[in-house]
C-alpha cells in the first residue's frame, strides 16, 4: 500500500509554481533554507516534516532538482546514502525510482554489504518529481530569489565571535525575513568562477546567476569562518545521432531493476523499457590534444584541488600518461537526444573540445550540443561545524552540501536532510541530534567532515565506513527509520509502521531458521544438495544451511513450506542477514566502544591552549583548531596520541590527582576500558590476570599503560645480563668471517647464492657466516649482547619466525609480520601483546608477511597494509577485525627469474597516504590507489629500450619521497636504485651499485638523502643525494663484519641503524663520522628486519627481528634524557 501511494504521487499533484510565484506569505519563519539544490531540497522538506514552518529561497525554481552534471544516482557507497536518505523519509530515493531509466547494482561480485545500487536518470522526470514533492509539502513555502545577506546578532557580549542568526535579506527586497534557523546550501555558488579555455566568468553553474557577494562577506568577515577553494568540472554533451554506437560496447541494465526506496516494490520505468549505456575508450590522439592545448586551459593550470575520484580528462591524461581511459556514453533521459560522456569532463576551448572528442572512434562524427566547463568555488572548512551541521560560531546557522567541501548529489542530499532536521529542531527549541558512524553512512560522512575536514572534494566510499558489514544497503530502514520517527520526527507514521512490520518479519524468519535443525545427511536429501559433505554427518540449523552460497531461502521454503513460506517476502533480506550475522555480532563490541566514547561530550568552551594537563603543544593546537564535539571525535583526529586522549578524558571527567602507587587499579571502570582500548589492549587481555594496570602520574593527569606482571621479572633479568659487549670472554665463542666472498655488483646475482625468496633468504641466512673460511679472528659472544650504548628494552617471543616489523606513525604500536601469515601488534612501551590480525580462512594465511606499513584512509581510519609472499597485498583496519581490501595481480610478462607467481617483497606508502606501491620477485612494481583500491600502474623495464628504465631482477625495497606525492625509488637485485615519477610509465633515472636484499632503502625526511644497504661485503652502507643521484659517503665494513645488510634506517638526524646477516648483528653508526657507536650481536640467526620508532615517548626505540624473537633496543642515554624531559 505504502509503495503504491508514494510512487503515484507525482501524477496526482499538479505541476505548479503558484505557491512559489505568489512570493512570501509571512515575514517570520522557523527555518529558512537558502539554495534549491540537492542539499537544499532535502533540508527544506526535512525541516518541514519535523514541524517547522519553512521557507526555501532559491535563485531559479525551474532548477530545483536539477542534475547539474551526470544524470545518475547512487553507486558504490553513494547508493547506501540514497537508501539512508530514503529511510529517513527523504525525497531522493523515490525521485530516483520515478526517474530511473537504467538500473544496475554495482559491485555484485562482492558481498551484499558493498553492493552499490545505481541508476541512470531522466533529468526532466527527476526535476519534475522533486518539484512536485516540494510544492505539496505542508509547512513549506518556496520562493524564487537570491539571498544577499544573513542577519546575525551578537549572542553574548562576553564571548566575542559567538553569534546568532536572526534572518536574511533578499536581493531587491527591502524587508528582511526573520527566522530562528538558516540552512545555507549554496553549492558551488560561493565566489564561484566558471572556466572554459582562457575565459573566466563569475558563476556557480553555467546558465545560473552568480551568488551574491554579501553571503561570502557574512561568512568570512562577520562570522570569521575559514574558507578554502576547490574545483570541479563537467563534460560536453553530445548529440546522440552523431555517435557511431556500433563502435562502443553495450552495457545493459539489470534485468530486474531494484528500486532505491523502501517504499517502492517496483520502478516507474518497466524493465523492458530501460535504456542501455555504452562503453568506449580514449586513444593516444586524445592525450595529444590535451597536451597540445594545456596553454589554452587556465582551469587546469590552477593549483586548486579537484575531485580525485571523478577527475577531468586533462588530469587523467597528465597523471597516467600512455593509458587508455574509459568513457561511458550514458543517456540523458528517455526522450533526450543527448549523450553524457562520463569521463570526459574538460575545460579547454570549445573548438579543442570537439577536436578531442573526434579522436575517439565512436565519436569521429560527433556534434557537441554544449561544451564542458570548470567551476572553482569557496567552501567552508567543515571542522567549524558541530555534528548537527550547525556552525560552531553561529547559533542557528547550518551548512550542508557542496559548501562543506563534498562532491556529489547523494552526499549533498544526506547532509541537507540532517541539517534540515536539526535546523527544524533548533527552531522548535529541541536539542540537536547526531548520527553515529556506527549506525549510518550519513554518520560516517558527517563525522569525517567535522572531525577531519577536507583537502579535496569529499566523496563517499564503502571503505570509509569501518562497520560497513552492518551498514548495508538492504537494512537502512531498520537502522534509521525508527530513529527518524521516534527521535528526529522526520519520518511519517506510515513508514515507521512499515519498518516495524519488516523488523518483526525478519526476527520471526530468523527464529524459524534457527528452529529447524537436522543432520547434514538429511539436509542433503531434503534439498537434494551435493554441496553438503556425505562423509561426516553433523547437526545443522536452517540458518547454517542458508549460509551456503548455492542455497536460497526460496529453496528452503519449497522444501519445508509450513515453516518458511510465511517469510518468502523477506527471502533476500534473510539470506543477507544470516550471511553477516556472526560478523555483525563481532563488530558490536567495537561499536559499543565507539558509542561509549561518543557519549562523552567535550565542553565547547574548553581552552585547550591553557588546559592544565599534560598535552603537547601540537595536540593542544589540533584540539583548539578542530574543537571536537565528543571524545570519540577527538580520538579520530590525526596527531592525537592515546596518552593525550587519556589526559583529556581525565580532565573532563575531573578525576582527582592521584599518586603513582595509589593510582594502581583505582580508575573507574569506564575510564579503565577507554584507557585500555586507547592503547589497544585486546578484550581477552583486559580480563587476563597477567595484565595489570600501571598508572603513572604525569604532572596533572593519569597516563595509563598496560604492563605485564611479568615485567618486574624481566626487568631483573635484564639487569643481571652482562652489560657490555665482550666484557667477559668466558661465554664467547670464536668464529670467523671471510671478506669479499660476494661477487662484484656487475656479476650475475644468480651466482651470488642469494636465496630465491624473501623467506628462504632469511632461512639460509641463519648461521651462514659460520661456514666461511677464517680470515681475521674476532671474539664474538654466542649470547645476544649489546654494548654499553645500547640497552635491551624488551624481548618479544613469537610463535614462529618473524619476517617484518614496523612501528605506527604515533609510535604507540609495533606490528610484527610472521612466517605463517599472522601479524601481531605489540605495545612498544613494554612489549605486551595487543592484537592479532589474521584471516585464517585465506589461503595466504600461511604465507610469510614480507612487509608492513601503517597508513590512514582518506579521512579517518588507521589502516595496516601488508604484503605476503603469496603475491597478495592486503589492507586491514588496525582496530577492526576485517580485511578492508586485498589484491593480487596476475604476472603479466614480468621479468625476473622466471617465477610463475609474483612474490610481493616490499611496499611503501606515499606521503599523503593516497597511493601505495609494491615490489615483487617478477621485477615489477605495482602502484595502487588506496581510496579506490585500484591498480593504477604496473611498472616494468621495457624490453626494447637499452637504457635502464625499470628493474631487471627482483625488487626488494621501495621508498616514496617524504614530501613529493608522485615520486618514489626502488632497489633490488640488479644493483640499481631506480627513480620513478608516477606520471611517467618508466623509471626516470637511476643510480648503480647497491645490491639490495631487504628493507635497505630509505629517504631521509629532512635532507632527502638516500640510504642504501647492500647484501655484499665490499660495500655496505652508502648515502646518496636524491636530486643528483651522486654518492655522498659510504661506510666500510668494520672488523666485526656485518657486511651483508638486510635492513637499514635513518635514526634521528645523526645516526644510522644497519642490520644484517653475516654476523647476525645490528649496529648504530654515526652519520657524519661513519663510526660504529653501538652494536647488538651474538644472535643465532640473521637480523632480517628492523624498524625505528618514529614518534612519541619511545621515539628512537629500535626493533630488530631475529628468528622467533623481536628485540626492542634502546639507546640508553637518549632514552633517559627524553623520559626525564617528559616527566
Ligand atoms: C559543473 C559541475 C560539475 C559537477 N560534476 C560532478 C561530478 O562529475 N560528479 C559529482 O559527483 N558531482 C559533481 N558535481 C557536484 C554536484 O552537482 C554537487 O555536489 C551537488 O549538486 C551539490 O549540491 P548542493 O545542493 O550542495 O549545491 P547545488 O546543487 O550547487 O545547489 C546550489 C543551489 O543554491 C542556489 N543558490 C546559490 N546561491 C544562492 C543565493 N544567494 N540565494 C538563493 N539561492 C542560491 C543555486 O541556484 C542552486 O540551486 C558537479 C557540480 C557542478 C556545478
UniProtKB/TrEMBL annotation:
It comes from the Eukaryota. GO terms for biological process: mitochondrial tRNA wobble uridine modification; tRNA methylation. It catalyses: 5,10-methylenetetrahydrofolate + uridine(34) in tRNA + taurine + GTP + A + H2O = 5-taurinomethyluridine(34) in tRNA + 7,8-dihydrofolate + GDP + AH2 + phosphate + H(+). The keyword Chloroplast does not apply. Residues 578-650 form the tRNA uridine 5-carboxymethylaminomethyl modification enzyme C-terminal subdomain domain. WD repeats lie at residues 802-836, 948-990. This is 5-taurinomethyluridine-[tRNA] synthase subunit MTO1, mitochondrial. Belongs to the MnmG family. GO terms for molecular function: flavin adenine dinucleotide binding. Its cofactor is FAD. Residues 712-786 are annotated as: Disordered. PROSITE patterns: WD_REPEATS_2 (PS50082), WD_REPEATS_REGION (PS50294). Component of the GTPBP3-MTO1 complex that catalyzes the 5-taurinomethyluridine (taum(5)U) modification at the 34th wobble position (U34) of mitochondrial tRNAs (mt-tRNAs), which plays a role in mt-tRNA decoding and mitochondrial translation. Taum(5)U formation on mammalian mt-tRNA requires the presence of both GTPBP3-mediated GTPase activity and MTO1 catalytic activity. The lineage of its organism: Eukaryota, Metazoa, Chordata, Craniata, Vertebrata. It comes from Alosa alosa.
Amino acid at each position: 500500500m505504502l509503495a503504491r501511494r508514494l510512487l503515484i504521487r507525482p501524477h496526482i499533484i499538479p505541476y505548479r509554481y503558484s505557491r512559489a510565484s505568489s512570493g512570501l506569505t509571512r515575514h517570520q519563519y522557523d527555518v529558512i533554507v537558502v539554495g534549491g539544490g540537492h542539499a537544499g531540497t532535502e533540508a527544506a522538506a526535512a525541516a518541514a516534516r519535523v514541524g517547522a514552518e519553512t521557507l526555501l529561497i532559491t535563485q531559479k525554481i525551474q532548477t530545483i532538482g536539477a542534475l547539474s552534471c551526470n544524470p545518475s544516482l547512487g553507486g558504490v557507497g553513494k547508493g547506501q546514502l540514497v537508501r539512508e536518505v530514503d529511510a529517513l523519509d527523504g525525497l531522493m530515493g523515490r525521485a530516483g525510482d520515478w526517474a530511473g531509466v537504467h538500473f544496475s547494482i554495482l559491485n555484485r561480485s562482492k558481498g551484499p554489504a558493498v553492493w552499490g545500487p545505481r541508476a541512470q536518470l531522466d533529468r526532466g522526470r527527476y526535476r519534475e518529481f522533486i518539484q512536485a514533492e516540494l510544492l505539496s509539502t505542508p509547512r513549506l513555502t518556496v520562493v524564487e530569489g537570491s539571498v544577499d545577506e544573513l542577519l546575525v546578532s551578537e549572542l553574548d557580549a562576553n564571548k566575542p565571535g559567538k553569534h546568532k542568526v536572526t534572518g536574511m535579506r533578499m536581493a531587491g527586497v527591502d524587508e528582511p525575513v526573520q527566522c530562528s534557523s538558516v540552512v545555507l546550501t549554496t553549492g558551488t555558488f560561493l565566489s564561484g568562477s566558471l572556466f572554459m579555455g582562457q575565459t573566466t566568468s563569475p558563476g556557480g553553474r553555467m546558465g545560473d546567476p552568480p551568488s551574491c557577494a554579501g553571503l561570502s562577506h557574512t561568512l568570512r568577515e562577520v562570522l570569521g569562518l575559514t574558507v578554502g577553494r576547490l574545483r570541479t568540472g563537467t563534460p560536453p554533451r553530445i548529440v546522440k545521432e552523431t555517435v557511431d554506437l556500433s563502435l562502443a560496447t553495450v552495457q545493459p541494465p539489470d534485468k530486474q531493476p531494484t528500486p532505491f526506496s523502501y517504499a517502492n516494490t517496483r520502478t516507474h520505468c518497466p524493465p523492458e523499457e530501460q535504456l542501455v549505456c555504452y562503453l568506449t575508450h580514449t586513444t593516444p590522439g586524445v592525450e595529444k590534444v590535451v597536451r597540445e592545448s594545456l596553454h589554452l586551459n587556465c582551469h587546469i593550470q590552477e593549483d586548486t584541488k579537484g575531485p580525485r575520484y571523478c577527475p577531468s580528462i586533462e588530469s587523467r591524461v597528465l597523471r597516467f600518461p600512455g593509458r587508455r581511459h574509459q568513457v561511458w556514453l550514458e543517456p540523458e533521459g528517455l526522450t533526450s537526444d543527448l549523450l553524457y560522456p562520463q569521463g570526459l569532463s574538460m575545460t579547454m576551448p570549445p573548438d579543442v573540445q570537439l577536436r578531442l572528442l573526434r579522436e575517439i572512434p565512436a565519436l569521429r562524427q560527433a556534434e557537441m550540443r554544449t561544451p564542458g566547463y570548470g567551476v572553482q568555488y569557496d567552501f567552508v572548512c567543515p571542522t567549524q561545524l558541530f555534528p548537527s551541521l550547525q556552525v560552531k560560531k553561529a547559533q542557528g546557522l547550518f551548512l550542508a552540501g557542496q559548501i562543506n567541501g563534498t562532491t556529489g548529489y547523494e552526499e549533498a542530499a544526506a547532509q541537507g536532510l540532517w541539517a534540515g532536521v536539526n535546523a527544524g529542531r533548533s527552531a522548535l527549541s529541541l536539542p540537536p541530534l547526531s548520527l553515529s558512524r556506527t549506525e549510518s553512512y550519513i554518520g560516517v560522512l558527517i563525522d569525517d567532515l567535522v572531525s577531519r575536514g577536507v583537502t579535496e572534494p569529499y566523496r563517499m566510499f564503502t571503505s570509509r565506513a569501518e562497520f560497513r558489514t552492518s551498514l548495508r544497503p538492504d537494512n537502512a530502514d531498520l537502522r534509521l527509520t525508527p530513529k527518524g520517527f521516534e527521535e528526529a520526527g522526520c519520518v511519517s507514521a506510515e513508514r515507521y509502521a512499515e519498518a516495524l512490520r519488516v523488523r518483526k518479519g525478519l526476527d520471526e524468519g530468523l527464529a524459524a531458521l534457527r528452529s529447524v535443525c537436522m543432520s547434514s545427511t538429511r539436509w542433503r536429501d531434503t534439498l537434494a544438495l551435493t554441496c553438503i559433505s556425505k562423509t561426516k554427518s553433523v547437526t545443522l540449523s536452517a540458518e547454517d544451511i542458508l549460509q551456503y552460497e548455492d542455497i536460497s531461502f526460496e529453496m528452503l521454503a519449497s522444501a519445508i513450506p509450513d515453516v518458511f513460506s510465511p517469510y518468502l517476502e523477506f527471502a533476500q533480506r534473510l539470506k543477507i542477514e544470516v550471511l553477516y550475522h556472526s560478523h555483525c555480532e563481532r563488530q558490536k563490541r567495537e561499536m559499543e566502544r565507539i558509542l561509549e566514547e561518543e557519549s562523552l561530550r567535550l565542553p565547547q568552551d574548553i581552552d585547550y591552549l591553557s588546559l592544565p594537563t599534560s598535552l603537547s603543544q601540537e595536540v593542544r593546537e589540533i584540539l583548539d583548531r578542530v574543537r571536537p564535539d565528543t571524545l570519540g571525535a577527538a580520538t579520530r583526529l590525526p596527531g592525537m596520541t592515546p596518552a593525550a586522549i587519556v589526559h583529556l578524558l581525565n580532565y573532563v571527567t575531573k578525576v582527582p590527582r592521584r599518586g603513582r602507587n595509589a593510582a594502581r587499579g583505582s580508575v573507574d571502570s569506564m575510564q579503565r576500558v577507554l584507557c585500555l582500548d586507547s592503547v589497544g589492549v585486546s578484550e581477552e587481555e583486559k580480563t587476563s590476570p597477567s595484565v595489570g594496570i600501571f598508572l603513572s602520574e604525569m604532572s596533572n593527569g593519569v597516563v595509563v599503560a598496560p604492563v605485564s606482571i611479568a615485567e618486574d621479572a624481566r626487568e631483573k633479568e635484564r639487569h643481571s645480563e652482562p652489560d657490555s659487549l665482550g666484557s667477559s670472554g668466558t661465554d664467547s665463542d670464536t668464529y670467523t668471517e671471510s671478506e669479499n666472498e660476494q661477487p662484484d655488483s656487475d656479476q650475475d646475482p644468480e651466482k651470488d647464492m642469494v636465496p630465491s625468496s624473501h623467506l628462504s633468504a632469511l632461512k639460509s641466512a641463519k648461521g651462514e657466516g659460520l661456514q666461511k673460511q677464517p680470515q681475521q679472528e674476532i671474539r664474538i659472544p654466542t649470547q645476544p649482547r649489546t654494548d654499553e650504548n645500547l640497552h635491551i628494552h624488551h624481548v618479544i617471543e613469537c610463535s614462529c619466525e618473524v619476517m617484518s616489523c614496523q612501528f605506527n606513525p604515533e609510535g604507540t604500536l609495533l606490528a610484527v609480520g610472521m612466517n605463517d601469515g599472522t601479524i601481531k601488534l605489540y605495545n612498544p612501551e613494554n612489549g605486551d601483546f595487543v592484537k592479532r590480525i589474521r584471516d585464517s580462512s585465506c589461503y595466504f594465511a600461511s604465507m610469510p608477511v614480507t612487509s608492513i606499513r601503517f597508513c590512514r584512509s582518506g579521512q579517518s581510519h588507521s589502516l595496516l597494509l601488508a604484503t605476503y609472499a603469496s603475491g597478495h597485498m592486503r589492507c586491514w583496519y588496525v582496530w577492526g577485525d576485517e580485511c578492508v581490501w586485498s589484491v593480487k595481480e596476475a604476472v603479466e610478462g614480468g621479468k625476473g627469474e622466471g617465477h610463475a607467481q609474483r612474490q610481493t617483497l616490499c611496499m611503501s606508502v606515499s606521503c599523503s597516504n593516497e597511493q601505495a606501491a609494491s615490489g615483487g620477485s617478477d621485477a615489477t612494481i605495482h602502484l595502487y590507489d588506496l581510496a579506490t583500491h585500484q591498480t593504477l600502474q604496473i611498472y616494468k623495464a621495457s624490453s626494447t629500450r637499452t637504457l635502464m628504465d625499470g628493474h631487471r631482477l627482483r625488487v626488494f625495497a621501495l621508498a616514496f619521497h617524504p614530501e613529493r606525492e608522485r615520486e618514489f625509488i626502488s632497489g633490488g637485485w640488479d644493483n640499481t636504485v631506480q627513480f620513478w615519477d608516477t606520471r611517467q610509465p618508466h623509471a626516470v633515472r637511476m643510480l648503480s651499485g647497491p645490491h639490495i636484499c631487504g628493507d635497505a632503502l630509505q629517504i631521509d625526511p629532512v635532507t632527502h638523502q638516500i640510504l642504501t644497504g647492500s647484501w655484499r661485503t665490499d660495500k655496505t652502507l652508502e648515502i646518496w643525494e636524491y636530486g643528483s643521484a651522486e654518492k655522498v659517503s659510504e661506510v666500510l665494513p668494520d672488523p666485526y663484519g656485518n657486511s651483508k645488510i638486510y635492513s637499514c634506517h635513518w635514526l634521528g638526524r645523526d645516526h644510522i641503524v644497519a642490520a644484517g646477516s653475516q654476523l647476525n648483528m645490528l649496529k648504530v653508526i654515526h652519520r657524519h663520522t661513519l663510526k660504529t657507536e653501538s652494536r647488538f650481536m651474538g644472535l643465532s640467526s640473521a637480523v632480517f628486519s628492523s624498524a625505528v620508532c618514529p614518534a612519541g615517548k619511545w621515539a628512537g626505540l629500535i626493533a630488530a627481528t631475529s628468528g622467533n624473537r623481536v628485540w626492542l633496543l634502546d639507546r640508553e642515554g637518549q632514552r633517559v634524557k627524553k623520559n626525564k624531559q617528559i616527566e
